[in-house]
Design a protein that fits this description.
This protein folds into 2 domains: 141 residues; 168 residues, no CATH class. A 7-stranded antiparallel beta sheet has the order 3-4-5-13-12-10-9, covered by helices on one side. Strands 6-7-8-11 form a 4-stranded antiparallel beta sheet, with no helix packed on it. It has a two-stranded antiparallel ribbon with strand order 1-2. It is built from 2 helices and 13 strands, in the order αβββββββββββββα. With 315 residues, the protein is an alpha+beta fold. The chain is rod-shaped, with a radius of gyration of 68 Å. Strand 1 and strand 2 form a beta hairpin.
């Protein structure tokens, strides 16, 4: 072998060695890279292994959430159904109650209407009767009725509007007493007692109608009058009439509480219960009853002028 060939062989050997060295370095780099990548691969594998675990937790949470939502929907639906059912029942109950109330109200209203109609009918009837009575009353205005009694032996006229006279004679151990009243005017009464009527005890509450008669002494302006009552002698109670009316030739005395005169200044004056009323004394010609007294309790119902006319009509 020539030197040239040795040189070539040496060069080739060196080149081969260098090539081998490069290959070895490349292999080492690859190995190193593989070695370095292996942990990453293991970490990746671990992460991939952990992923199912995370997915499992998420799946459990999702399951719980789904169960919760389902339960909430079920419960909510039940509550909603219950509320709707209760609402419908309440509506139905309210509707029934309102209907019953309306029916009850209509029934009451109908009853009240019937009652009002009945009252209206009654009112119209009463109104008609009142109008008829007013018509009759207008006819009675000024009309007179004559009262006649054989026991007293008198007659007198009075307004027809006073109605019928109720006359009554009673008797007890003291004697006889008579009273007369008017059906439609309780403000006018009359009465007296028999001449033999026994005396009664004195009292400021004595009845003005307990009269036997009156006594007249003298004539004209000098005439004196005495109220003859069962409570005293003929001339015990002097009176000064407020007015003297002539009737059938006799004096009819109209008196009030101021007509009674005291015998002495220190004596009390009796009005025999006359009070604010107007009285009248009439002398009769009978044997048993010789006097009659009238009391007019209301001059509004029976004015003095009309009262005087009645007294004048006595016969």
């Amino acid at each position: 072998m020539s030197s040239q060939d040795e040189i070539n062989v040496s060069v080739n050997s060196d080149q081969e060695e260098k090539t081998e060295a490069k290959k070895i370095r490349r292999v080492r780099k690859v190995l190193k890279k593989n070695v370095e990548k292996e942990p990453l691969r293991e970490e990746k594998v671990e992460k991939e292994q952990e992923k199912p675990k995370k997915s499992k937790k998420g799946s459990n949470a999702l399951s719980h959430f789904v169960v919760f939502v389902f339960t909430a929907l079920v419960i909510g639906g039940a509550v909603y159904y219950w509320q709707n059912k209760m609402s419908e029942e309440q509506k139905e109950n309210l509707s029934k109650e309102a209907r019953n109330t309306r029916l009850d109200f209509e029934k009451r209203l109908e009853g009240m209407t019937d009652k009002l109609k009945g009252q209206e009918t009654e009112f119209n009837q009463l109104k008609e009767k009142a109008e008829q009575l007013e018509g009759k009353a207008s006819l009675l205005d000024g009309a007179l009725i004559k009262f006649k009694n054989k026991d007293l032996g008198i007659t007198f006229n009075y307004p027809a509007s006073f109605g019928e006279v109720k006359f009554e004679i009673t008797e007890d151990q003291s004697g006889k007493r008579f009273r007369g009243t008017f059906a439609d005017n309780d403000s006018l009464v009359f009465g007296g007692v028999s001449m033999n009527y026994a005396s009664a005890s004195s009292s400021i509450n004595n009845d003005f109608l307990d009269v036997k008669s009156y006594v007249k002494k003298g004539d004209g302006d000098k005439a004196e009058y005495f109220y003859h009552t069962v409570h005293g002698a003929e001339t015990d109670y002097k009176i000064e009439p407020m007015r003297v009316v002539k009737s059938f030739g006799e004096d009819v005395l109209m008196v009030n509480k101021d007509s009674f005169v005291a015998k002495n200044k220190e004596d009390n004056v009796w009005d025999f219960g006359l009070g604010a009323d107007i009285g009248a004394l009439v002398k009769l010609s009978g044997e048993e009853f010789k006097g009659i007294a009238f009391i007019n309790k209301s001059t509004a119902k029976f004015p003095l002028a009309d009262f005087e006319e009645t007294l004048k009509s006595i016969k």
